[in-house]
Design brief:
The complex is a heterodimer of chains A (288) and B (759). Chain A is built from eleven helices and 14 strands. Chain A is α+β, with helices and mostly antiparallel strands. In chain A, strands 4-5-10-6-7 form a five-stranded antiparallel β-sheet. A four-stranded antiparallel β-sheet of chain A has the order 11-12-13-14. A three-stranded parallel β-sheet of chain A has the order 1-3-2, covered by helices on one side. In chain A, helix 5 packs antiparallel against helix 8. Chain B is an alpha+beta fold and 759 residues long. Chain B has three domains: 18-24 and 457-602, Aldehyde oxidase/xanthine dehydrogenase, molybdopterin binding domain (Aldehyde Oxidoreductase, domain 4, 2-Layer Sandwich); 32-137 and 210-259 and 265-297, Alpha-Beta Complex (Aldehyde Oxidoreductase, domain 3); 304-455 and 606-758, Aldehyde Oxidoreductase, domain 4, CATH 3.30.365. Chain B has a seven-stranded mixed β-sheet, with helices on both faces. Classes of the chains: A alpha+beta (288), B alpha+beta (759). The A-B interface holds A 1, 184, 186-192, 194, 258-262, 264-265, 268-269, 272 and B 121-122, 125, 621-624, 661-662, 666, 674-675, 679-680, 682, 684-685, 687-688, 741-743, 746-747, 750.
């Protein structure tokens, strides 16, 4: 039996070098709430484990001129207790905090959730709706790409060998902005999204001036639904605009029938959640 | 309601097993270890139905660290005879094939071979080296599909029993059973309103948190010891004895604490395999199933099809009832179709009844008992139909049930006439409960359903030993799955007139107490309770003899009161009462140790009835059902320890709610189980539910000294229909198929929308 080698470097350069030298058998360990489960199930058999929790840049939240940067390995519990984030990005916080249970929250991270590349990841639609930029470091240096560009399909990312997701950078929040994330699960917790929907809005009085909508679990990757955002911008979020955005969401769905939901049900719920999430985001925008 | 006053019965002392359980000290199935033990693992079929052409274990046997490999060849062939397994019946010829596949594999997860190795990693590696050549056969999962002509046949020898003339063609229908009372055709001619519907249910797993686990050690002299998590260690002994041709006295089985059983731990999976591996390797062998193995290979309860027809007069009198129940047994015959048929209309006093049942095999794990096996399935149909009748007649659902309720003297359609039962009292208690008396909140809707279970008695042995300081050990042989140790100790304390803290109950292994039937059928507090009471009575009889000796009077002149021997009257003489501890201290001089024992086949288990009330809301956009309030009302005879009675009522209700709303097995096109884990097999989580309220009704069972009726099974019978009936009132849609999961509820609402708009 081949044993996995465990390392815990203290710098990103070191981590990238280790990962790059593993010839594709390396895996990044943040909270481990996906990786360790996969190893137990025998679906992941890494030769090298690179624990990134000793790298300061990956485990801290910083704020600069109203823009937040969240280290990719920051746990859900830490994000949930961050006053600034809770005020500026309640949708992101609630999405991250929906992952697993209270115990899992002590370990699970937004970076891990993104790199696990599940179409049903809860934090990803919220990050995409927020317009989060993802900082990636690899053997060829640093780059930044939008959150929606990281996943390539179920379990697959666009990361090159040796690349590590370092952090999420959230844009400066204009006044009267709000975001929300809703997911549908048959139970009330400890479940995987049948559909997830993130909405981020900016309001000017009753009128919506900016909107981004994202859907999870309805396609091979989390989707940014630009048409849904467009349907909301310029409107007062009246029934007509909400129905148009819901229709855009339904049109964007390319789901599968599986043990967690049917094509028909997922498509319908995408529209339902859009309306409900938009209402919550709008309420937050008005009171922000 | 209980007329007698007691010192201990009806109180809520701490349970004797509580401290160890909350501190983690209690030992469950996987917590037993022996020096030098090996790890046993099972190779399981990846196919739903296939012939085994060959098994080559040579590479696995050669792997360093592998100490034994077994296949079906290592287990003797068994006769075609049926023996009891808890509340179910099993055929030994089938049992040996279920623990290790012989000619063919019959479901995804069916055991094919097993290895014992020095480590789990080596054992797993060895499994991968076993080469099994399969010839894949067409499979059938669904019960109705399995009944059709041309369905893939699981067993070439199977002919439908109970049909005349005896069929000659192989079939998946193992048995037909018929029950009749009166003339159902004549009954329906009197009906002014008839409800006729076809309902289905999905198999559901018992969902015990603790997986199956066993440790076996076979000695060179032929003696065998087993430690396992089971509801019946005598049953484990019996099965291992028969399956391996070992005399029962050579096998000693010690039960662990149990992390849930609900009926599913009344059969054997690992124990005979672990013994065989231990015999072959000469080392103790420990086997623990993974959660995936539990789902793929251990018994759920049946899927069912229930066709119900009920006829009533306009004033709400049910005049005729008919029901067809087809239950899926899994890979081998033996579904709980009998109890399903018998429980169907047991709640009601109806003149003309006809019930037909079918036992059907299909390519799924063999079903095992699950809380009131079969009853929840037929009652889902019957109680839904009764609700529809109530709506048709414009009657309150409790009033309709009261008008037709079975009572003392009602003759059932399956034979017996009820002795003293408490269904009317239970319905009345439901009607006057705080829940039913409170108007339903805006946006919510209310459902009601009833349920019945026989409860059983059967074989029990017990002993009571008085220690030298006058404290007492109560020894029984039933694993405690619901607080029975506390109840037994309380009854012993009551009978003896001593403090509960002076009585310590233990569960003895198979070599340390006489035979006990499994913990099942809600029988332990009743039947083993009876044995404990009788054992204590023997102690009391002996104590009176000892006091008589000391006082030099006749034993008849001594009475036992409040834990003390006293002269029966002043005529006997002036004697200071002798306490239990005084008599114990003098035991050596008065005749030796003071012990009592009793063994019996308990008759007169009191049937139980329950009525559940639920308020819920349906999200019309998502199909999600939210339960706001839930009350379980039940006649328990006498609640010995009310907290554990309430716990049983709450637990049953919650399992039933899971069955109603989300639990189902999802098989892919190849017949492979797609959701073998708690993530996608959705039992309720705590946040899904409100506190389950309980109303205990006490109509004492005349066949038990303290009036005990079984408690644990009745509460899983009503929930599915209660939830369905509330959903019907919330949506106007009668749901016929379980589970009523969000996609199904949403689809039904959407399908009904254009129709509603058109109306």
């Amino acid at each position: 039996m081949k044993e996995a080698r465990y390392t815990a470097p203290e710098t990103l350069d070191e981590a990238v070098a280790l990962l790059a030298s593993a010839n594709g058998s390396g895996r990044v360990l943040a909270g481990g709430t996906d990786l360790l489960v996969q190893m137990r199930a025998g679906t992941a058999k890494p030769g090298l484990i690179v624990d990134v929790k000793k790298i300061p840049e990956m485990t801290t939240i910083t704020e600069k001129d109203g823009s937040y940067r969240i280290g990719a390995a920051v746990s859900g519990a830490v994000i949930g207790e961050h006053e600034g984030l809770r005020k500026a990005w309640p949708g992101i916080v609630e999405a991250v905090n929906l992952i697993g249970s209270t115990q899992v929250q002590g370990r699970a991270s937004a970076g891990g959730n993104l790199c696990n590349a599940s179409p049903a990841a809860d934090s990803v639609p919220a990050m995409v709706a927020a317009g989060a930029m993802v900082t990636i470091q690899g053997p060829k240096g640093r780059r930044e790409i939008p959150a929606e560009k990281v996943n390539a399909g179920p379990g697959r990312t666009t990361l090159a060998p040796g690349e590590i997701v370092v952090s999420f950078t959230l844009p400066v929040r204009p006044r009267n902005s709000g975001d929300a994330y809703l997911r549908l699960i048959p139970r009330t917790e400890m479940d995987i999204a049948v559909v997830g929907c993130g909405v981020s809005l900016t309001m000017d009085g009753d009128r919506c001036t900016a909107a981004r909508v994202s859907l999870g679990a309805v396609a091979p990757t989390v989707l940014l639904v630009e048409d849904a955002g467009k349907a909301l911008v310029g409107s007062t979020l009246d029934d007509g605009a909400l129905e148009a955005a819901a229709a855009a969401c339904r049109a964007a769905c390319k789901p599968i029938d599986d043990k967690r939901g049917t094509i028909v049900y997922r498509t319908k719920i995408a529209g339902v959640l859009l309306k409900r999430a938009a209402a919550i985001a709008a309420e937050r925008a008005r009171s922000h | 309601m209980s007329a007698r006053t007691y010192k201990w019965i009806g109180t809520r002392p701490n349970r004797p097993d509580g401290a160890d359980k909350v501190t983690g000290r209690a030992r469950f199935g996987a917590d037993f270890n022996m020096p030098g033990q090996l790890v046993g693992k099972v190779l399981r079929s990846p196919h739903a139905h296939a012939l085994i052409k060959s098994i080559d274990t040579s590479a696995a046997e050669k792997l360093a660290g592998v100490k034994a490999v077994v296949t079906a060849k290592d287990f003797p062939e068994q006769e075609n005879i049926t023996v009891p397994a808890g509340e179910m019946q099993v055929n030994l010829r089938d049992v040996t094939r279920n623990i290790m596949a012989r000619e063919k594999v019959l479901y995804d997860g069916h055991a094919v071979a097993a290895v014992a190795a020095t480590t789990e990693a080596v054992a797993k590696e060895a499994l991968a080296l076993i080469k099994v050549e399969y010839e894949i056969l067409p499979h059938v999962i669904d019960v109705e599909a399995a009944m059709k002509d041309g369905a893939p046949i699981l067993h070439d020898h199977l002919r439908t029993e109970g049909v005349e003339p005896k069929p000659t063609k192989a079939t998946n229908i193992a048995k037909r059973i018929d029950f009749a009372k009166g003339d159902v055709a004549a009954g329906f001619r009197k009906a002014e309103v008839v409800v006729e519907r076809k309902f289905t249910t999905q198999p559901v797993h018992q969902g015990y948190i603790e997986p199956h686990a066993a440790l076996a050690s076979a000695s060179e002299d032929g003696q065998v010891q087993v430690w396992s998590t089971t509801q019946g260690h005598f049953q484990v002994r019996g099965f291992c004895s028969r399956l391996l041709n070992i005399e029962t006295s050579q096998i000693r089985v010690t039960p662990s604490e149990i992390g849930g059983g609900f009926g599913g731990k009344t059969v054997v999976y690992l124990e005979p395999v672990a013994i065989r591996l231990s015999q072959k390797s000469g080392k103790p062998v420990k086997m623990v199933m993974t959660r995936e193995e539990v789902f793929r290979a251990s018994g759920p309860t049946s899927a069912g099809v229930v066709e119900v027809k009920i006829g009533a007069t306009r004033d709400g009198r049910i005049v005729a009832a008919e029901c067809m129940v087809a239950l899926q047994a899994g890979a081998f015959p033996g579904s709980p179709v009998g109890p399903a048929c018998m429980c169907s209309f047991a709640c009601y006093d109806i003149d003309d009844i006809k019930v037909v049942g079918y036992d059907v095999v299909s390519n799924r794990p063999k079903v095992a008992a699950y809380r009131a096996p079969g009853a929840p399935i037929s009652c889902w149909g019957v109680e839904s139909a009764i609700d529809e009748l109530a709506i048709e007649l414009g009657m309150d659902p409790i009033e309709l049930r009261l008008k037709n309720a079975a009572k003392q003297g009602t003759k059932t359609h399956y034979g017996p006439t009820f002795n003293r039962i408490g269904f009317v009292e239970t319905l009345e208690a439901a009607k006057s409960s705080p829940h039913y008396q409170t108007p339903v909140k805006r946006g919510f809707h209310r459902g009601v359903a009833a349920g019945f279970w026989f409860n059983v008695g059967a074989d029990s042995s017990a002993a009571a030993h008085v220690g030298e300081d006058g404290t007492v050990t109560v020894i029984s042989g039933n694993p405690d799955i619901g607080g029975s140790r506390a109840s037994l100790a309380m009854m012993a304390a009551e009978e003896l007139g001593v403090d509960y803290e002076k009585v310590r109950p233990v569960i003895a292994d198979t070599s340390s107490i006489g035979f006990n039937f499994v913990t099942g059928g809600s029988r332990v507090t009743f039947a083993t309770g009876l044995a404990v009471v009788n054992a204590v009575k023997e102690v009391v009889r002996e104590l009176k003899i000892r006091a008589a000796k000391i006082w030099e009077v006749e034993p008849e002149a001594v009475v036992w009161e409040n834990g003390m021997a006293k002269p029966a009257s002043t005529n006997v003489g002036e004697f200071e009462p002798l306490s239990l501890s005084q008599l114990a201290a003098m035991a050596g001089k008065t005749g030796g140790p003071i012990n009592g024992h009793a063994q019996l086949n308990a008759q007169g288990a009191g049937p139980g009835f329950g009525v559940h009330i639920v308020d819920l809301a349906v999200d019309h956009d998502t199909g999600i059902v939210t339960i706001d309030r839930y009350t379980a009302v039940q006649d328990v005879g006498t609640a010995i320890h009310p907290s554990y009675v309430e716990g049983q009522m709450q637990g049953g209700a919650v399992q039933g709610i899971g069955w109603a709303l989300n639990e189902e097995y999802i098989y892919n096109a190849k017949g492979k189980l797609d959701n073998p884990g708690f993530l996608d097999y959705r039992i309720p989580v705590a946040s899904d539910l409100p506190m389950i309220e309980t109303v205990i009704v006490e109509v004492p069972n005349p066949s038990h000294p303290y009036g005990v009726r079984g408690v644990g099974e009745v509460p899983i019978v009503p929930p599915m229909a209660a939830v369905g009936n509330a959903i019907a009132r919330a949506t106007g849609i009668r749901f016929l198929d379980l589970p009523m999961s969000p996609p199904r509820v949403s689809a039904a609402i959407d399908a009904a929308r254009p129709k509603m708009a058109a109306e």
